[in-house]
Structure formats: C-alpha cells, structure tokens
Amino acid sequence: MRALTIDAHGGLEQLRYRDDLAVPPLDAPGQVRVRVRAAALNHLDLFTVAGLPGVSITPPWVLGADGTGVIDAVSDDVRTVKPGDRVVINAGISCRTCEFCLRGEHSLCTRFRLLGEHLRGTFAEFVVVPATNVARIPAGASDEVAAAFTLATLTAWRMCVTRAQVKAGDDVLIWGIGGGVALAALQICVARGARVWVTSSREEKRTRALALGAHEALDHSAGDVDREIRRRTGRRGVDVVVDSVGERTWAQSLGSLARGGRLVTCGGTSGPNLAMDVRRLFWHQWSILGSTMGNDAEFAAVVAELAAGRLTPPVDSVHALADGRAAFERLATGQQFGKVVLRISDG
C-alpha cells in the first residue's frame, strides 16, 4: 500500500512516501475499509509533523484527516454502506458510549480522536474507520471537492450555525480568508443572510473572497482591524467573530465585537495563550465560544449541502501522493486559496 508518512517529528524533511505498507484489515465490528481516491491537507497535518503536546506516533505514521473514496470492504454487521459506494470520511472518531456521545454530542466525546493525529490517517490507498464515520455522496461531486470538504466544512458549520447561531442581518468577521475553515464559514454565513467581513494581507485573496460573496475585505497588515471595523460601523462593531488564529488576533477580535457579540474559535495557529480584561467581557456581555469538529447530525447536514451543490469548497491545487512534500510546502507558505488536495488513487 502506498502512503505519505513520518517516522519522527520535525520539519517537512520528515515526510516519506512509501509503497510497502500492508493494507489495514477489518479487525472489529462496525468497520469499513475505504479505498481512498483523494485527500486534503489541513493545518493539523503541519502540526502533526512538527509534534503536538501529549500526542505520540508509531512509525510509519500515516498522516491525513480528510478524504474521499470508495467502500472496499465492510464488517459483517454493517448495513449502512456497501462495497462500491462513494463516500466522504468524517475524521472525528468517538466512542459512542460516553455520556456526551449518548447525548448526540460526539465531538465532546471523552475519548475523541482524529485521523492523522491520534489514529493513522487518510494519506494512504486504504483506511479503516467506523461505518458511522462515512457518508455516501452523489456521483456528481468531484473527488477533489469531496476530499476538500469534510473537516473544514463540518468545523465551520458547528462554529457558525450551532455555536454562534449566525442569522440573517448579523455582521460577521472572519480572520484569514483563504484557509478551508474560513472559506467554509464565509459560504455558510453568506447563505444565512449575514453581512460578512473577511481579512487577508494578500490583495488577491481579498478580491476572490469578495467574488464569493464577502461584503467587506480588510488588509490586516495595514492597521488595526478592530479600529477599521469600528470606524465603518459607527463604533458599533460586529455581532460575530470567527477566529482560529489565537494570540495574534485575539485582542482585535474582542475589540471588533459589538455589545452582546459572540466570538467563536476552533484553534490558535499563532499561539495558545490569550490575555483579556475580564471587565470588558462582563460589561459588554460577550459570549466566548469554543468549537471542535461536529456531531452526527451536523455531519449529515453538511453532506446534504454538498449533495445539493450549495456548499462547494474552493480547491487551490492538486498534487500526486508521491509529490506530497510539495503539497505540504504549498500549505506552509500560506499562499493557498482553498484546499490543497492529494490525488491518492483512481480506483
């Protein structure tokens, strides 16, 4: 089996293309094996290569969380899908038995794990996952779009729809347009009737975001975004901020919020440590919302959007699996607009 792997943490020199791995077996009830056609990169993959606190790997470690392909085999008890079905993969694996799973909140599972981070991932010709973690998709969805879809769109859906409850008439600020979650959030919020503000230091990305429906595009390298938003909104601010940057943007995210506003975050790419004046938090009655991946109902909702053609992630570039390092380098530069995809197989 061919795969993109690492044997140790470090820089991108650790990436190794291999063609000698064993095909993973079905070794438990409720499993399916997917022959992966395409898979997309996420910043999570860069973090996994570098090393994450408390996360260990066993060489050869297969990277990757997102993926799409065809069901190759199923356990005897699986009835929801069958060999030959085209599917997308939900990278969040939950135990299905803890109190949170039984409440339908699978991404709050006490044993929640992610493909590519805690379990071997999707940058391989075959991957075995629970049947609950795949969903059938129509023939009309391209492999590249389907591969680019699940993790970013599911994350953005939970952030914007479930947690921040974006509605028509809201003003929403999305930091760092061009990445998968930010672009999915833009599409979701525009569809819900919100007025969307985006930021990027690159003029090309701002222009492309406006073409996708953004109403305002700000250059966050040219000055304080919060001051500019206050100026343009008559000092009111925005109702919702979508922030996955963390340390570098936190103060400006809070400074951009209107009274009663909601800040929702799913990550901290610039660092995890935040500072704030708690008096502003309670005085302005802000809501600070964390969000991770999504549950089964949200997974079904975003797949329905994909099937209907209402949510289609932009694809930045497509690379052969053997050229995986070039794909990682593209993502690491921050120049991409949309998802960076690996073509795994044609089977």
Question: Your description of this structure?
Answer:
The protein is α/β, with parallel strands linked by helices. It has two domains: 178 residues, Medium-chain alcohol dehydrogenases, catalytic domain (Quinone Oxidoreductase, Chain A, domain 1), CATH 3.90.180; 138 residues, Rossmann fold. Helices cover 28% and strands 24% of the residues. It has eleven helices and 18 strands. Strands 3, 5, 6, 9, 10, 17 and 18 form a seven-stranded mixed β-sheet that branches. A six-stranded parallel β-sheet has the order 13-12-11-14-15-16, with helices on both faces. The relative contact order is 0.16. The model has no long low-confidence stretch (mean pLDDT 96).
Mean of pLDDT: 96
The CATH architecture of the largest domain would be: Alpha-Beta Complex
Overall domain count? 2
Question: What global shape is seen?
Answer: globular
Radius of gyration: 20 Å
Number of helix segments?
A: 11
Query: Based on helices, strands and strand pairing, what is the structural class?
Result: alpha/beta
Compressed to H and E, one letter per element, the order equals EEEHEEEEHEEEHHEHEHEHEHEHEHEHE
| Top CATH class of the largest domain | Alpha Beta
Helix content: 25-40%
Which stretches of 5+ consecutive residues score pLDDT under 50? none
Number of strands: 18
CATH topology of the largest domain: Quinone Oxidoreductase, Chain A, domain 1
Which assembly state applies to the chains in this document? single chain
Largest sheet: 7 strands, mixed
CATH homologous superfamily assignment of the largest domain: Medium-chain alcohol dehydrogenases, catalytic domain
Distance between the termini: 13 Å
Strand content: 15-25%
